[in-house]
Amino acid sequence: MKSLKLQVLWVLLLNSLIGGAPYDRYKVLRVGFPRRADDGERLQRLVAETAGAEVWRRSVEGAQEVWEVLVPPSGGSRFASDLSQGHYSLSVKIEDVQKLLDEQESERVALRRHRTSSAFSHSNYNDLQDIYGILDKLESENPLVSTYVAGTSLEGRLIRVAQVSVGGDRTRQVVWIDCGIHAREWISPATCQWVLDQLTSGYNADPAITELLDAYDFHILPVVNPDGYAFSWEEDRLWRKNRHPYNETCVGVDLNRNFDSHFGGIGSSNIHCLPIYHGEMAFSELETQAVRDSLTSLKGRLKAYFALHSFSQKWMFPYGYNFEKPENYDELLRVASIGAEALFAVNGTEYSVGSQAITIYPNAGTAVDWVYDSLGVSYTYIIELPDKGDYGFLLPPSFIVPVGQETWAGIMAAIKAM
């Protein structure tokens, strides 16, 4: 056992030294197996012992559990060998991660040459500076929009929230939507921008949006994790956590394991280098403090909370920290199902619906559970945006518009059903 611990620690050190890019000849493998604890533990052990490997996605598909795993060139043969023994099925989802990264970077550069002068550009992903430029333009030109600073990150970046309101002296109920808590999930901030665009352009033009804004104020936080998001643009496209340094080799906290909801429990880790490191204590991070304080200031007005993530195509609700059903499970399921059906009607994109622990995997310390338990918000949802692994976190810009269209249709239908 001692030798295994030393081996795992050595692998973690190698992982941190390898860092991010380049991802030459890294693959993303799809591993399927029957839902049995020993098979999952065996695969998790293999990932932990392979320098540079990381679980990108876990999902339940019928009687099968499916994992998508990022595997370095040095680990491919071992994965193939070890998983040939047992009940595993193995296929390649992404043949060469770096090749895909290079292709998408070339596409982004080409698209930026043809940007429009309008506030929003949904043909391409926007970096943090561009996103905040959009907020500035909206605030100066649209009377419905005001922005406020929820907090400041460790590296000094502002955590900005856009409020869309037609008035009411801040007495209306609030719908909160946040995006970008995990840096590499670029489709999430892009979808928050789509929602902002629809709200600000649709009032008095679209009856459904007008009805929503006559009833609710919307608070949109497009990038919860500005340091991590900037790092994913400048250094490592696949970076997940924030940028809190703990030692010379391990950086970052998984912000969606840092909320005071069974903190330190299942689905999180106290090992600094791991992608799901939960931090030193609940709300240890400036980003989660900013979300906590902003939401707490709205307590009593919060009608609904939505957190947009990627990837998996799942519409989920509490709980993540255990398999128990929340008190209003049937109502949460009813509203989520209506949202998923409206989403499907746009482009035919299918979403699974259910509680986090059952629908994707158990995870403690998440925002959605904290909002539900601590603030008493009856409608709290985490939406895992497309896809199901063909591109994973590297969803091309051509998906921004269809994902935005269908997600907004689903959210509107869900709010109307509450």
TrEMBL record:
Q: Which residues form the signal peptide?
A: 1-20
Q: Which cofactor does it need?
A: Zn(2+)
Which Pfam family, any one, appears in the UniProt record? Propep_M14
Which residues does UniProt mark as catalytic?
A: 384
Residue ranges annotated for the Peptidase M14 domain, each copy included: 124-418
What the entry lists under InterPro entries is as follows: M14A-like_propep, M14A_act_pep, Peptidase_M14
**What is a GO molecular function of this protein?**
metallocarboxypeptidase activity
- Alphabetical keyword list: Carboxypeptidase, Disulfide bond, Hydrolase, Metal-binding, Metalloprotease, Protease, Signal, Zinc
A GO BP term here is: proteolysis
Q: Which Gene3D superfamilies match?
A: Metallocarboxypeptidase-like, Zn peptidases
SUPFAM superfamilies to which the protein is assigned, alphabetical: Protease propeptides/inhibitors, Zn-dependent exopeptidases
Q: Which PROSITE patterns match?
A: PEPTIDASE_M14 (PS52035)
* Entry keyword Metal-binding: yes
In the UniProt record, which is one GO cellular component term?
extracellular space
The organism's place on the tree of life at top rank: Eukaryota
Identify the SMART domains for this entry: Zn_pept (SM00631)
The keyword Protein biosynthesis is assigned to this record: no
Protein family membership: Belongs to the peptidase M14 family.
Tell me the protein's name.
Peptidase M14 domain-containing protein
What species does this protein belong to? Penaeus vannamei
Organism placement in taxonomy: Eukaryota, Metazoa, Ecdysozoa, Arthropoda, Crustacea
